């Protein structure tokens, strides 16, 4: 039998509902409590950094091979970074920016 990856049993999937994400993962993280399976099903990643979206996907998809067959979502904790009205972020193939109000 194939050995489980990341303390996950073969056939086990991580497909939480929205309220489960908030109550079981986000709330404990915000309260400084231990988050279950952090680093195995929910990852810490600087989504505002210099990595392209597909690079982030490639980095983390191999950590959840069983789940991603059915559910193509990855879950992250990231630090929100407030940007000024003139700031922009323009990686090679995608762009987002803040415009004046």
TrEMBL record:
GO terms for molecular function: DNA binding. GO terms for biological process: regulation of DNA-templated transcription. InterPro entries: NAC-dom, NAC_dom_sf. Keywords: DNA-binding, Nucleus, Transcription, Transcription regulation. PROSITE patterns: NAC. SUPFAM superfamilies: NAC domain. Residues 8-101 form the NAC domain. The keyword Transcription applies. The keyword GTP-binding does not apply. It holds the Pfam family NAM. This is NAC domain-containing protein. It comes from Rubus argutus (Southern blackberry).
């Amino acid at each position: 039998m194939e050995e489980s990856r990341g303390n996950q049993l073969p056939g086990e999937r991580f497909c939480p509902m929205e309220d489960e994400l908030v109550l079981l993962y986000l709330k404990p993280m915000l309260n400084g409590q231990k988050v279950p399976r952090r680093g195995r099903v929910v990852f810490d990643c600087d989504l505002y950094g210099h990595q392209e979206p597909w690079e982030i996907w490639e980095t983390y998809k191999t950590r959840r091979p069983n789940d991603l067959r059915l559910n193509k979502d990855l879950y992250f904790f990231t630090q929100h970074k407030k940007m000024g009205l003139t700031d922009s972020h323009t990686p090679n193939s995608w762009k987002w920016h803040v415009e004046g109000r």
